[in-house]
Records
---
Amino acid sequence: MIRLKVVERIDNFAFTARREVRIFLHLGWRDLKSRYADTFLGPWWSVANLLVIVIGSTVAVNLLSGGDIWSSAGNLALGISLWTLMANNIIESTEMFISERSLLLNTHLSELSLILRIAWRNLLVYFHNLSVVGIIVIISGIDGLYRLCYLPVLGIVATILVLPISIVVARLSIRLPAIKIVAPAIIQFLFFLTPILWKQPTSGAMALVGSFNPFAWVINISKTFVFNEQINVVQSISLLSWLLVAVLSAIFAKHIFRYSRKSI
Amino acid sequence: MMQNQVSLQNVSFWRRMKSERIGYSPFHSKTANLNFINEVTFSANSGDRIALLGNNGAGKTTLLRIMSGIFKPDSGTLFVEGNVHALLDGGFGFDFRLSGRENLKTRGVIEGMSRSEIREYINWCKDFSELDSYFDRPLTMYSQGMIARLVFSANAYSFNGTLLIDEGLGTADANFTAKALDLLQQKYASSPIVIIASHNIEMLRSICNRGLVLDKGTLISDAPFETCISELREQKLN
């Protein structure tokens, strides 16, 4: 009897999970179609946008520091594309309950699915961006084209990493609507504390900042994989533990969002 | 054959709301529980055609959301047997930058239809709504009447089980209205339980045999439809 109940629960969970995955994958894809409907380049606009930012910041950084343009372009392209992915996931989560109110009040769709929908659509944009990032990284010089295979994986890792932040931010945005105004400013500030435009030193204040900044862990580990830079063991362990937090937050999302539907 | 039943036993639903803010800090405000649904008890069985009556803010839509399982009651028990199909906000999830076809595809995915079911659903809606070439154009190009046709078709596609409807299903122009009402009558007749929240007494009179009157979240009357209407009239006179 108990065994039957367990099997039934697993069966129900598998059915719901399959349904929710199908919905968030569809909605994420639909969002992109809608966002770029009737535009000349479609999602490639985001690629053009990234290209302009990378060119602009590469020139600016090298004019200031006097470094080699080609070697820093790859680092910047990788850093900015990952940063855009993570920042958009968090910022868009602040508005999720407001923009999808009708879906939440008329369907059984879970709140986590809406967060994953945002993650999926931003991941799709990131995959488009990889066409430019890949070319710039090759021009910058990497030892082995196989390292390009890390790029999509790093995007997925970055997406999983910001999941707990997105969940908490989305939940808090119901009680504190000001979050949707404050979050972009905080993200902007964090951009300068993350080693995207600069390289993290091994000692000093900025090294300390980097060691406590989860975004820095992602950027540094990404550079390690793509450009074969020296691996930072502490940051690798921190990143792994943070990923565990992300998985746990997804598992307990139902409890985190427990009273959210009735509060919107 | 599966028996359909919806039963509520002392169901309450509340929400913590800020009642007073102290200063400018968002953390220093008084909060209080506001009862949306208060100890509601009733049971609906096969053959019941129930009208949910009450003023705006009485809790009709919230009660429908509880019965459909979108909201979980804070106290009391809800027992539902058989499928429940809720039509609360007809146009939910529609994206106006996309075509009618793409919006219906999304609706199909949300409703959990398979690919072949979605194809059937879209074809049925296209035929029923008579939108022709507009069906594949963005909703921004639709007139209000066209949107009403699409919304009606999207919601009136075949369903089985208990039917929960909020404010009826709006229809479009006169030609379409007759066709739509005809279909609705068939749907109401084939559904084992129909519960409709509306202010349109004439429409409710043609469908319902029982009424539930809500006032500020409390069920004040559960009686035959005409009795409920008389009670409502008396209430207004007082």
---
Amino acid sequence: MVMGDLVREVDVAVVGGGPGGYSAAFRCAELGLETVVVDAGRRLGGACLWEGCIPSKALLHVSAVLGEVERAKEFGVDFGEPRIALDALRKWKAERVVGKLARGLAGVAKAKGVEIVGGRGVFEDSRALRVEGDEPQKIRFKHAVVATGSAPSPLPGAALASDRVMDSTGALELSDLPERLLVIGGGYIGLELGQVYTALGSKVTLVEMTDGLLPGVDRDLVQPLARHCEKLFVKIRLGTKVTSLHEQGSQIEARFGEGDTVAFDRVLVAVGRRPVSAELGLETTRVRPDAHGFVAVDERCRTADPRIWAVGDVTGEPMLAHRAMRQGKVAAEAIAGRPAAFDTVVVPAVVFTDPEVAWCGLTESQALREGRPVRIAKFQWAASGRAATLGRSDGLTKLIADADTGRVLGVGIVGPGAGELIAEGALAVEAALTAEDLAATIHTHPTLSETLMEAAETLLRPT
Amino acid sequence: MPRPFVLPDLGEGLTEAEIVKVLVQEGDRVQEDAPLLEVETDKATVEIPSPVTGRVAKIHVQPGQTVKVGAVLVTFDEEAGRGGAASLGTTLARSAPPADHTTSATQRAPAATAAAATRGSGPVAATPATRRLARELGVDIHTVRGTGHGGRVSDDDVRAAAGGRPPASAQPAAQPVAPERPATRKPLAPVGAESALPRFEQWGAVERQPLSHLRRTIAERMTLSATLVPHVTHFDRADITELDAIIRRNVEPARQRGVTLTLTSFLLKAAALALREHPQFNASLDPAAGELILKRYCHLGVAVATDRGLIVPVIRDVDKKPLIELQGELAALAQRVRDGKATLEDLRGGTFTVTNIGALGGTGAVPIINYPEVAILGAARAREEPVVLDGRIVPRVLLPLSLTFDHRVADGADGARFAAAIVRRLERPEQLLLEW
């Protein structure tokens, strides 16, 4: 028997070992279903652990420490110039952070009896997968979960194959520190990595095609971040398109619109991510990705093919790991016949920059656009005791509440720690709490969480 | 072209059904008349066949969900040229409401009605756990009116919408013992109003299980009969020593004809023949008209215990059928009921009910009348007992019987005479012979 002839039968085959895939697999296993994960790298964690959320947050922590050291001069504490050992930093990121978490996930998989098969999973029909690569075999499944995630989009119209042009994956490898870095894209990836490279010593120029950073986010939440970035970066060029990239010796020349050309040592392309749904053999099933490559799913995460489910980035925006994880659990329970549904009201989003920006639920601009009757409360951190003790009064906490019932429909926060604070906002919206509920809950003093309570209180006062 | 298929009119005033099984998957190709779904009504589990040949584009219902007649069950992508509107017959005659919300579950409770007020103004005001409960109970949470602060939908609101049960927490938890106050004149709670339940959680862990459709139906019908009908029960015993011997002697010959002979068929026959002499027990009362409706047919219900609950299928014209045929029909019917395959016809039109609880032991039971019938015969286990006969103690096989009847229709003396007529036929099988 040749390896390729090996056919195994499982209840559930999960294609892709990222957060959506492993969450689905773990829950399936807990529910007594025999489950395998097919992953090209024969590992769990996906882009999130290996080349996304986790390594970028490790580097952003370093960048935050460096930022605090710089700010400490205001309090009369001077550490002198920091010295950065790039090798040690890379090692810490790879072994103590990513490696440790990866070992943890592998341990959980083993404990739950989820097997990980190395190779690329290709559908042969609605019942079978062919695994190509390290461990070629055929897997017959009762149900499959497509959790193939997303990959960085190339720069439209100006893509250049060069070591000096990186995507987010390459940038996180930190192979060297360019003196001059061009970041293309003013979304969360460009801003986060731009700040990392700035903290490590690069001179960063950022270009954004639209007329503001973080398109789609309420402007008052973006403003403190934009002001800080203006100080950190050499230049921020809004409403600017990079029309061409040319390699000239050891540098890259970038042309902005129809105008000037500027030279950089490296370029980071961070213009978004696109779903991975091609070359999966989906055409042999009833699954038909749309024009953008997204796979449509219903409330239970089922695709047009009754045996095939999909979770995570491949199913659409927002492409966030925590959404994928919830979807993974829903799909698993639905497969097991439970009445699960992805009826989630909010998928909170966080930009882990300095300052952090986080929001969930209805935004102010969306409420305005839709003409929803809402009341909006804003609490400036200038009035927060805790913010003053941190030397950070540039934050803002904002609540969007239903005008009639006072129900909290959306929360937005900018400031250090916003990414942690938003959890309370997400709970409030998801559990349908009212501003009064938030205002009447004692929040520890002095903390930044008080700003949520304070904002809620302003809604209780008569207008 | 997408074609919605709605829950057809099931007849006899049935307005809703619980989805037991969905037998197809979205995307499946089905032939006309192939089974689509299994639904359970107040009366039976019924397979709903596909009205067309085509592809199942969308399934709008889930097992456990209760749907109203007219609610969209399935949307078909119809095969070109096959089965036009006419083939859907009456099922499409009542115009199908839009597919999205009509598939939603029960709307029995008043709390479940004012949907428009809450819909459309953002997400449902309920916690994720409450939304999960709604899915489990088959309630469309969008149709539940929240009674909480800011219109929040609570677990109790969802349960009320699912079963019309009053919220369990209507009463404060532990009531402090108040000093005794002078008694005040206060009317008793009206009949039928259920008092709020205490919070059982205060004494230990509890688990809440939703009632199945069948259980709910039984509960409602038993409550109706027990509160509406003045029940009276007459007890008797039949000496079936001879009948028992006849049955034993004929077990093998009957088996050769494919029939397992049981006492129940003799009970049915005896009751049917006695009903001829006592037609007021083969009747229904019409209190509004002030009339007793005597039925000139004799269709007897037989209580059958299934793992889902009690079901009473009906055998037609028991008085006219040969015993061996009766026995065969009884076995087939009981099997259909246990398999959940009984049709509505199997379950309707009964005039009198026999329940034989002998198999499970006991010395007697007082069943509740299967309203709107007016009487029910209960039989317990027949046992060999010492009996004084002609001054000697002899072993005889005795069958304890109870006749429960509607006292509005007959009196104790009538019941005694009717019971005696049944007993006589069981004790002297040769009389059965002459009548059969």
